[in-house]
Amino acid sequence: MPPRGPGGPMRGGFLTEEEKANRPKVTWPLLKRVFSYLLPYWKQMFLVLCAIVLSSVLGLLPSVLTGRIIDEGLIGRDLDMLIKLILLSLGVTLGSNLIGVGENYLNNWIAQHITFDMRNQMYRHLQKMSQKFFTSSNQGDIITRMTSDIGGVERVITSTFTSILSNSITLAAAVVIMFRQNWILALVGAAVVPLFVIPTRLAGKKRWELTKESQECNDEINGILNETLSVSGQLLVKLFCKEDYEYGKYKNVNHRMIRLNIRESMAGRWFWVIISTFSSVGPMLLYLVGGILMIKYDSSLTVGDVTVLVTLLGRMYGPVNMLLNIQVEWIRSMALFTRIFDYFDMKVDIQNPENPEKPILTDGTVEFKDVDFSYTEERQILKKINFKLEGGHSIAIVGPSGSGKSTIINLIPRLYDVNGGSVTFDGVDVRKLDLSFLRDNVGIVSQETYLFNGTIRENLLYAKPDATEEELIEACKKANIYDFIEKQELGLDAVVGNRGLKLSGGEKQRISIARVLLKDPALLIFDEATSSLDSISESKIQEAIDPIIESRTSILIAHRLSTILAADEILVVKDGEIVERGVHADLVKAGGTYTELYETQFRKALEAEWFSTT
User: Fold this and answer.
1) pTM
2) Interacting residues of 438 by C-beta distance below 8 A, sequence separation 6+
3) Within 10 A of 42 (CB to CB), how many other CB atoms are there?
4) Burial of 361 (0-12, 13-18, 19+ CB in 10 A)
């Protein structure tokens, strides 16, 4: 992307070093893919093309009519003709402008619909991407693709493509008319155009370079301000007595910024001196050559003819200058499409099978058979995991941090797929099940609760949009959160705030449990649901979890002994392997990993809980 200036990204007829290094390879398949988005709107595009041609040609007619106004109206002293030509010129100008308005509307209509299509396609594609994509990709980059990049397509269609067409047609029409008027003066005009364009390009390049330097200097100043004037930064400066040092550093950079600003300002002044000078040279040369032809060689050449050529010459400067930037704008446009297509071409790792299975009845039985898994080839996370959870029973999975506990449960709803072995749900490999069916029957209460910025009711209905009031209340009672809701002035319609910030951690977690219960899954998974809560909040959540575990197939990942003891079986995971399994009493006596966890984590948590209640 181009570097940013004070008003946004610096645009111009020059590529940045990054753009030069990453310029896309423009191929026929790429162009076909770009224009495939225009194809559904070919009728509107044809109308835009007709409007551009008509508007460009009509826009030049007043210049031609100026010659007749001078020759036939003023010099010919024909008042009626003068009035007719002036009215005709005004009418043509108005017509050209009205057509331009229509073309602009159509252009924007097409651009908005194409970006509408692309945004929908991108959003749907991103929804299908696996959890691996979101954990490994930069979130800012994902949002940029959805907003800035696709938004840039709108500018390409409304500006770059139409500008190329409009300026090409205007330039071609102006050249044809000039040569029809007088080929000698047309050649003189064509020779003069580079005298205007070349200095413009040179001056523009100089300003571009100075602007880049100025922006880099400005970034350095902002860096110093952010570091030294932040709460932590200013404290560090004071504690190490670096006020004078930081002031000197800031002063030097600020002084460099001032020098660059002056140079940039003066470069702009010289730029306009050059522009105004050379914009006057062309007309003067045409008047000179035209005068010589009129006086000595061509008596048929009129003042109006020379005026027409001078006017048309002025209309050529803009299109020529713009068309010289075609390569730059074209590269930027193709780079934009390439970035978007890179995302579209990303493989969807987790896909619905061609003939998905949907068992009629399910009790949530889960079995892992020789499961291997790794996020990258360099590090294997799970190794030969084997266990079976029968419907109606519960297991607790414990182990040191980073041992692979959460990874195990993420494989059940196919947030990731196994690298080896299989995970079955009710006896069917999860990769053969319909994804929606599978995920509808697996409910996960995670450690990091996410609530949308809306009401409690809206967050609950996310699980079951057609739930009745009675069902909502029942779910909240089971989650031990209904007493809190009743105390709210708006009850279920109380707003939770962005990410649930108006609620405590325990309240958010219990609403999350209620939401999962409303979904009524066959299998319930609690992933460290109480790990970051205070003892009171944990107690209320534990009161909600205990009866749920007794009535549903459940998997518990926890570090609280009370939660673990409620499970029918305990699996101990270490370094991606199940190293121990059994019930609490037997595992404590075994003197292995579980005993170590009990001594270092569970007992301390139990003691802390006991002290908090006494």
Assistant:
1) 0.70
2) 413, 414, 425, 430
3) 11
4) exposed
Tell me whether residue 39 is in a domain: yes
Q: Specify the CATH number for the domain of residue 246.
A: 1.20.1560.10
Instruction: Report the amino acid identity of residue 12.
Output: G
Residues 240, 246, 249, 251: is their CA dihedral positive or negative?
negative
| Distance separating alpha carbons of residues 464 and 450, to the nearest angstrom | 17
521/602: higher pLDDT: 521
Q: Where is 384: in which H helix or E strand?
A: strand 382-389
Under 8 Å between Cβ of 206 and 274? no
Q: In angstroms, rounded to a whole number, what is the distance separating the alpha carbons of residues 368 and 407?
A: 13
Confidence of residue 13 (pLDDT cuts 50, 70, 90): low
Half-sphere exposure of residue 119: CA atoms within 13 angstroms, side-chain side: 17
Q: Give the residue carrying structure tokens 């809306």.
A: 454
Question: How many domains does the chain divide into?
Answer: 2
35-49, 75-89, 273-287, 363-377: the lowest-pLDDT one: 273-287
The least confident of 156-160, 161-165, 554-558, 564-568 is 156-160
**What mean pLDDT is reported for the chain?**
80
Assess whether 137 and 157 both reside in one domain. Answer: yes
**Which residues make Cβ contacts (< 8 Å) with residue 611, sequence separation at least 6?**
none
Could you read off the pLDDT of 410-451 as tens digits, one per residue? Answer: 999 998 899 999 999 988 999 999 998 998 899 888 877 788
Running DSSP on this structure, what letter comes out for residue 495? B
282 vs 187: CA distance, rounded Å: 12
Write out the residue range of the structural domain in which residue 166 sits.
21-182+318-349
* Residue 373: pLDDT band with limits 50, 70, 90: very high
Enclosing H/E stretch for 352? none
Closest C-alpha to 383, from 364, 399, 398, 368: 368
Residue 175 in domain: yes
Considering only CA atoms, give the Rg of the chain: 36
CA distance linking residue 348 with residue 125, whole number of Å: 8
409 domain residue, yes or no: no
Q: Which amino acid is at 525?
A: I
Quick check: helix, strand or coil at residue 525? strand
